[in-house]
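Reopening: structure tokens for the farnesyl diphosphate complex, inputs below.
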Amino acid sequence: MPTDVLDRIRVNSHVPRHVAVIMDGNGRWASRRGLPRHAGHWEGMKAVREAVEAACAAGVEILTLFAFSTENWKRPRSEIDALMALLRAYAEKERERLARTGVEARVLGEVDRLDPPSREAVRRIEERTRGGSVLRLNLMVSYGAREELVRAARTLAAQARDGRLDPESIDARTLERALFTAGLPDPDLLIRTSGEFRISNFMLWQLAYTELYIASAYWPDFTREDFYAAILDYQRRERRFGRVTAG
Ligand code: FPP
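Re-run output (same inputs, fresh job):
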């Protein structure tokens, strides 16, 4: 079946260049099984591996995963520690495999808020995978879109104060260059799992014209077939970017 689906995706031709994912439902996946929440996050890591493989196979160029939000800092210490341990484990375990398959991993967000071992794990995965040309994988960690926009405003204001930027010349591109996603195209498709219809402070600027796809599965149950189904659904849509017809 996957080969058939991949053929259909390729025949349809317009594969989304950039897919972003809000990986929701790890906690509920665990609760349903009477397991602690962190068990859901660990299971979610397997779904991450599957999504990365599916993105590579489908010809997606950029995959952006919301792994830890600014708001997640308000969770109990034990859960934050579990999520940081998971980030480190992912970086350690997957680094070689990602490098071998041509995946360039970047961690975007307020990385300086992470503890030193987690920052070191981030540095190592980025260093080892640098230059990968099959897929760019963005792990959004300690990320919040409002915080990102506030940070961008501060950067531009400081440049204007120092006489390096004329306020009159500021346009959308100037602002984009101050975001964590500088240089990347906006997501074409956003997938959110666990049936929730919310953006949850994720990429508020970049998602302006993105197609939304809500999957009912909890993230740990989200398979490569679900990923392909989202792409096929995207390919059936007509994107108009505010115009009358696509062009
Ligand atoms: C949302 O589920 C998910 C998270 C807060 C963490 C996402 C992290 C992973 C999927 C692990 C992969 C991590 C890396 C570093 C690749 P939730 O806890 O909000 O679930 P709930 O809504 O059911 O409570």
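The longest helix spans residues 77-100. Residues 23-28, 41, 44-45, 48, 67, 72, 83, 86-87, 90, 139, 219 surround farnesyl diphosphate (CB under 6 Å). Marking as resolved unless the reporter disagrees.
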